[in-house]
């Protein structure tokens, strides 16, 4: 999958006419005429080097006009993308003013790093300063119609969701850090989130989000959206920086009542050579946290009569999906993470520059402290066996202890510069899961006695990505041509061991592996037809191949492997758009696209073996099809003095949506695995308000957004009962917002809120609740107070979830959490 960030001087839509755009922004947003205006960032500008192409004489590109006719979307796109028609002897458009601004929510005075087709959001320092951010994904938690499934501080399974994207559809998002891939497209579930841990929130300069696959520059994994994280570049001379945070969460649920706390520490320095080509930035970050329990044990009704222990302490929750008593809590999420990050830059002086990024990220998860609520007559804790609760007999579930270790490495190289009249860029990256080892006991007694268990080891796992493009201005056109490539590979082996802590005497049990490769090419064009009209369009072609899929088990005392059949497919996807100035000082944008998201390694190579060492045909679907979407987005915007309103209507229809469900496989047998849903459809309406100096109060800024979503399973032959039902985990309503008030030169107070109505928990819509195991309503309010002690030092205190809303995403979300932060820069 192609996952690169475009270099800041290659944004076709944003590039042409930077100065004219700025002038238009001042006319539309009068407050921006003041360079010190707190919302100067609302209309962004493009770097001055974009003007080089703009002022070039149009006669240089004079060619005959080609008529623009189309009978279909594909034909229209082909003409928009490939034609360079309107370059006549005198380019009236190139000389006309003004050119309309690009529609970007929250845009600052630097360009957005993703081509902004459809709804686009750009967040910067003024937004970050108002957020209690411990993990980098916290920085976008108030973005419009957006969420991150973050269950606790340091959560390794924080999956982003856009609009009607399910919170476990991780393969429908592209996430990049400084242009390098951190999307884990090895699978498609909560177990394959982006690798957020390669950057800390204090290192982020800009956070950009684009919703949907409306640019042909990006592959089908942009079906949900794209996230680009840009880190802070080295400044002139030498700078140093440090941040320390402490946080505590008083948590109470069922029989758990205790404080969970942790800390982060980050420090580093940046350097840029005076009158020289070199620059560098190096940082180290450590996080330690005790997160609240993520799951709870429930007793299992016992059959027959046998000796049992009379116990107290079991908790009854009548709203649980399974009505049996709660007997305890899984281990707390005791997390330790270390990150070492370095970036080196070199400016060749002829317009070419290079950047090299390297990140080492290690993490450990200690799951050796499960909790039981049960006590016998003597007051001793009870972890195993058969028990009696209120006259009924139950058996305790297996309580396992575990330890997980990971070591992950990201390396990337970026080159960019001019090639004749073209601007070129090349990105290469490699992400390696160098070590991933999970050791788990087989039951509680084996856990505390350090005996039998399993040892799961990751072999060659990670991904390669490479992409390049060239772009230039041709009269009224901004033309880009490029390629994308990726290789994802995984290898996992599970051993039975005699000592789960040390992994002693391993015996092979099962093994799986596989690879997927994707090669893509695109052409993309933005054509300024008139001063008030811009057409955009593109075409991309992708070739995908899945191979080396294998599964093995122990047969007659030795490992035995079988192979999956290799798969390959090709997809062609067009995109088109219209950006237009409308009467009454309105601006409109229409975006259309199709996208193809191919199955991941885990979705394809998930099969199991039966007792004879053969494929279990009930466990996998070898004919899994790629997801194919048709997307449309309409946006309107208008600025009213210091208030800007943006409205959006979106539509997406996905054929063969891949989802883990229970139903009939290709052999007509009921099974639970990834299957294709025939048709899933979503549409919705979004309203976004950005206000500066609200109510005439200097320094009071507000961002507010509301979204209504209708996401339905239209046709599903595997599970007919799901047809016509709201798709699971997608709420009907989302409201996010953030207000910031600088009430004194050195003081700022802010508040944020997130609301989501109660969604369905399962595909059939029969499970709706507000407790463990369900997807619940969410209503969370946050606050932060910051004091600039000196020009170099800042102290902040904050609280998240002020009302202590007990919300659930099957697992419990965090309850009320307090944060203390100290920042220093020198």
Automatic annotation (TrEMBL):
Signal sequence residues: none
Topology versus the membrane: Multi-pass membrane protein
Domain spans labelled TonB-dependent receptor plug: 123-226
Residue ranges occupied by any TonB-dependent receptor-like beta-barrel domain in the UniProt entry: 377-802
Superkingdom of origin: Bacteria
Intracellular or extracellular location(s): Cell outer membrane
Key words, A-Z: Cell outer membrane, Ion transport, Membrane, Signal, TonB box, Transmembrane, Transmembrane beta strand, Transport
Keyword check for DNA repair: no
Pfam family, any one: TonB_dep_Rec_b-barrel
PROSITE patterns hit by this protein: PROKAR_LIPOPROTEIN, TONB_DEPENDENT_REC_3
Transmembrane parts of this sequence: none
Family annotation (SUPFAM superfamilies): Porins
Any GO MF annotation of the entry: siderophore uptake transmembrane transporter activity
Biological process, per Gene Ontology: siderophore transmembrane transport
InterPro entries on file: Beta-barrel_TonB (IPR000531), Beta-barrel_TonB_sf (IPR036942), Plug_dom (IPR012910), Plug_dom_sf (IPR037066), TonB-dep_rcpt-like (IPR039426)
GO CC entries: cell outer membrane
Residue runs in coiled coils: none
Sequence similarity: Belongs to the TonB-dependent receptor family.
Name of this protein: TonB-dependent receptor
Organism: Niveispirillum lacus
